[in-house]
Amino acid sequence: MHIGVLTGGGDCPGLNAVLRAVVVTAIKHYNWRVTGVLEGWRGLLERGMTREMRLNDVAGILARGGTILKTSRTNPAKVDNGYQIAADRVRRLGLDAVIAIGGDDTLGVAHEMTEIGVPMIGVPKTIDNDIFGTDSTFGFDTAVNTVIDAIDRVRTTTESHKRVMVVEVMGRHAGWIALHGGIAGGADYLLIPERDSNVQEICEVLRKRHEGDKDFSIVVVAEGAHVALDPESESKHTYITQDTTTDDFGHVRLGGIGQILAQEIEKVLGIETRTVMLGHVQRGGAPSAYDRYLCTRFGIHAVRFVDQKKFGHMVSLRGNDIVGVPLADIAGKNRTVTNDLYQEAALFFG
Ligand code: F6P
Fold first, then answer.
1. Is the CB of 65 under 6 A from ligand 1?
2. Average pLDDT for residues 281-289, to the nearest whole number?
3. Looking at 11, 104, 105, 128, which residue is catalytic?
């Protein structure tokens, strides 16, 4: 057998750990050949973008962040005849199957490729943890650890200066990082994309806190949260987001909500309010122990799925088991934070 492997979409800690597990399992256990496809789907749309993956190529990469195959947000749907070009390249390369490691966009493309007859296996990646059909994605645990480390650090300076600190974290469609990072970091308020809010509501909670025995506050906001500046304008959906360019999958570039929120809180409460945007710091660096273990298992099982011809499936974590979920069942869906989970966090507001 000869398999291909690619990493697509935004990177995240643990991609290299999956690549290592795929290569070691395929070569040492099955005696197969592995080809790495460079820069996600771009590597199947253009010529000469592959490299042989031998055991030596993955030695020492378990703990390294990023991806040795590089990545891109290239979408074959945006290229004339893109899916067919990619499928033809798979045949020309002599690949019997392709393992695609990525988030909902990459897995959506993997589903389309399956539909036109390319044997695909998906591996769920994203720090956002919002992929439907798996209890967890890899990269999320590392990102949450980075967030709580940052909150622990800003807490001491916020406390000293009696300020409000707004910590902006990633999370486009889902507030998992804000929820886990906020609870584990002891946030006094948190905002997630699943629940619309307004500045007055936030300030009311903070005002009560500061009128009591507390003289500082930590607010965690997900980059994709929807916050109305004025409750009156809620129906008009006056959200604070920074819409700029869109990528190949039509996503706007987020980032900046924390800054605007901080200005508004300071205006309403008259308390000095600062912001920290954690941004890509959350996506970089060495994966946590949990992620290294999960990635290794995802990689092993992705290769086993190829052996079992479970094409068109994603490896998925269910409890402590790795199971297969049809890519068709997850396409176009997100796993979001429930109201019950948000209410647990809300018990600690103020
Ligand atoms: O991978 C998901 C994510 O981290 C989102 O939370 C964020 O909006 C996006 O990636 C940023 O991607 P890029 O680095 O391409 O701007």
1. no
2. 98
3. 128
Nearest-CA residue for atom 16 of ligand 1: 253
- The per-residue pLDDT for range 223-259, each reduced to its tens digit, is 999 898 876 665 555 566 556 678 899 888 888 899 9
Residues 14 and 116 in one domain: yes
In the reported structure, the alpha carbon of residue 11 is separated from the centroid of ligand 1 by a whole-number distance in angstroms of 8
Mean pLDDT for the chain overall: 95
Do 73 and 163 belong to one domain?
no
Ligand 1: distance of its center to the CA of 54 in Å?
A: 30
CB 64 within 8 A of CB 27: no
The dihedral through the CA atoms of 297, 62, 147, 178 has a sign that is negative
Q: Which domain holds residue 213?
A: 141-283
Q: Is 340 a catalytic residue?
A: no
Please state the rounded mean pLDDT for residues 253-282. 95
Paired strand residues for 277: 168
Distance CA 262, CA 273 (A): 5
Whether pLDDT at 121 is above 90: yes
From 252, 283, 314, give the residue that closes a domain: 283
Q: Is 254 in the pocket of ligand 1 (CB under 6 A)?
A: yes
Total number of domains in the chain: 2
In a domain, residue 234? The reply is yes
CA of 10 to the centre of ligand 1 (A): 6
CB-based contact 124:14 (threshold 8 Å): no
Q: Which of 226, 248, 283 is the last residue of a domain?
A: 283
